[in-house]
Every structure is written in structure tokens, then in C-alpha cells.
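Supplementary Methods S3. Input chains for the assembly prediction are listed below.
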Amino acid sequence: MTCKHYLLTGALFLTAQAGFGQAKTDTLKPHLLTADSLASGNYKDVFTSFFQLAANDLSGPNKALDFASNPFAIMARGNPALLVDTNYVKYSRLRNLNFNTGVVLDSAYRLSGFNFGIKYAIVNKRDVSISHKFIGETMSQSRELDTLVRHLSAWASKYALSEPGFTDSLVDMAFKWENNDTFTFNKFTSRMQDTITAIISNKDNHMPTMRKLMKDDPNLVFKKVSDSVYNEIKGEWQNKPLWTVSGNSTFASQNAGNLKTITASNVLLSTEFLAGLNAPAHHVKWDLDLLANYRMTNDSTNPKQNIQLHTFEFQPGFNFVLKSSSATNGGPGKPYLEFKISGSYYHTFTTLQPGQKADSNTINAVLRLRVFQDIWVPVTILYDPANGNVFGFLSVKANFTALAGALKKLEGAE
Amino acid sequence: MSATISVVFKSGVGQINAELFRNGASAGTGSTDATGTITFSDVRVGDAFSISGACAGTAVLTITPTTRPATPVTFQAGNIFGTFIVTAI
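Predicted C-alpha cells for the full assembly:
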């Protein structure tokens, strides 16, 4: 059974389990690239992923299976040389472009339409992969580690010819200490420990932090210290602004299964802004999330298909990362439970029906749970305080073949 | 004898600094902030290279002539550190 089959099976299972009320599903269908996912550690999975498969609105009458990717991902799949940094940087604008396409199914799982859209990150300060400044910051903050390695190299060059056996073993084990996060200092022989300790303890070598770390933890793992520096700086960069614009369109048939009658049923133009509000290492990480939508949808009172109902939505909110896996290598851990609270203000521009208000509001909540490494289940609840109505939406989103994973596979295939 | 230190960065940018040590003293430095090669013109058996840097994706480091530890070695996203002794010319 393929990954896709597992996902679809899981989606069907969740559909059977869910019992959320449904309404306004065409206009409120979750975006494939959701703001809250971008705001969290899931941001990297989503925005730099090769592919995302999403089963949206599983318990509603209009279920959708969506596929998202970006042109660079597709190109790199065919030409792995594009992943080399000199090419990778050239295509950074292309990597900020996502496209999505999908199908809409009715409650009997008959094809009733399809959708497509594009999203572009106008500002994406979170992408450390193209930033020499980020690399510079990392190296600057790792200066003591660099000093230790340089002194160790100097020591090795001094004794490489006179004591080749000891020196070879020392550099072998030092390499493991520097690059293996399970290699503790006590795995060195006592003479090696003395050699390294002497380098760190020499005050002329200017390593006060390493001296303290070694004193606090005699079994220090160099790699963990190194990773903590990198991850902390990377986490700080995830607080930087992200601003996207997108356009999505849905085409649906008047009669499910009869695609001859298919017409545009929903056009959505969006812009979204994210920015972190507190330090990534904080117990509860929270982000500001501002979303504005302009929707052109079908007027249900008009039997003829059209997109003449125009509404504007402004949705300010906050996304909270409530639970993260423990960060073994420093920096923020991987989020697995998130909660987003927001309010929506709606304004209808077109002619109102009797009794219909031009302005309305909802209170929105999204609970997101990472059930597997790359699979999230967002549950969306909308509350209309004026009418007391509650709407719920259940989705499954799988980000697969992330760039790093794809690279490994591509390299393995070479 | 000359030696080359080649690095290939993938899925992101990176930088490495290399310093050559002989008999406990620095004998030369080099650096690159993109996929490329650093060349040292005078390298002898028993010399040691100190490599430090960082990469946002992966980095594959290859040193010629032969060193201990042997190369190529692949570094994942993060800091890059290593001491390599030249064992044969």
C-alpha cells in the first residue's frame, strides 16, 4: 500500500469518526497553505516542501483533495544539480512560489469540481537556506568551538609524526565528538581527555564558556553544544516576517458527476502576514497572524451559476505553539500541538437579501495536532456570536518529501 | 605538494574556513562561502587541516591528498568542524 493509499484510508476513517456540523463550506474551505502552519515549525515543511497532500473538509458535503508543490521542487526533481547552492540561490524567487490544484468531491465521493491556485511569498525573511548573514551569525556565535578545533589541529600537527598512533586516534575520536551527538567526552581515553582539557583550561586560549560547560557536564557532547548554537539562531530567524499573497479558484458543476455543467463557483484573493512575538525557546511560542480575503462566490439564491456575491474578510489572530517535542539539541523543539484563535470581520459588497446584514463577525479557533512526522490534523471551529451558530471543519495535511529528504533520495539514486 | 579542499553545498548556502597547521603553528588559511575549492600549495605529511564553518543544507567535504579521518564526509545543516591530518602525499 502506498503512502497515498494510507493517507486516503486515514482520511476516510476520520470522516467516519467526525460529526461536525457543516455550512458555508465552499467559502470557508481551509487554504492549502495555512497561516498557522507557516507560523510554526511546520512552516518550513510547508513552504519549502516538495509536496503537500491535503484532505480538506472531510466531514462536509464538499470534500477536497488538494496537492501543493512549487516549480523549483518539480525542476529539482528532474535536475538534482539545481540543489547545489550556486543554482539554489538563483532560484530563490521561484522557491517562494507555491501552486496548488485539487478535486472537489460530493458527499457520495463523486467528482463535483476542481480548484487551483498560486501563492507567492513577497517577504520571506524566515528562509535561512539562502542567507549568508545567517551563516555568518552561526559561525560568529560558534567562535569558541572553532578555537578549540583549531588548537586541537595545531596540537595534532605537532605530534602527528612523533606519535602517529595516538594522534590518529585522537583526531578520529575528536571528529566523532564534533559530529556525533551521542559521543560523550568520557569516551576519549584519559590521555586524550587530559589533552583536550588542557587546551580548554588554558586561559590564553579564551574559551570561558567551554570551560564552564565542561565543568558543569564532564561528559559534554561537543555536537550538542554546536547544534544548540545553530538551532537557537535558526529559531530566532523563524520570528522574522512572512508576507504572502495568493489567488485560488474553484470550479464546480451544478450536478455532481456531470462535469459538462462546470463553472467557476469561488474565486479567492488573499494576503497574509506572520511575525513571531516572543523568543522561540519560550514555553509557549506565539505568532501574530493577519489575514485578509476577498471572495467572489456563487449566490445561492440565484439558480444560475455566478460569482456575483463579493465579500471581504479581515481575520487578525494569534497562533500558539502549546506543545513541542523536547529539544535535545538546543533551540526550539518541533511543535506537535498548536492552537490558533482569531476573529473575523465580514463585509458583503453586493446586494443584500432581505434580513441579511452587510457586516458580520465570527470567532475562530483552530486546533492543530501533528499525528505523525509530517502529517497534521487541523480541526477548525467557527462561532457566529450573532446567531449562536457553530461550524466545524476537519482536515488532514501531509507534507511529504521535504527538501532535505528529497535530496537524500536523489543522492541515493545517483 | 599542493592540497585541495573541495566543498559542495546543497539545499542552502554555507561557508567553510580552512587553516593549515605544521608543527603546531599556522601555515596558511583559506575560505569559501560557496561550492568550490580551497588550494594550499605547500602541504606535507603530518600537517593538519582545521576546518570550521556552517551550512544551511548539506555540505560534502573532500580533501586531497589522503587524510585521517578520510574524506569525503557529509555534514548536515549546522556547524561544520573537523581536524584532518595529511597521511600520504
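Chain B is about 0% helix and 65% strand. The CA atoms of residues 47 and 61 of chain B lie 18 Å apart.
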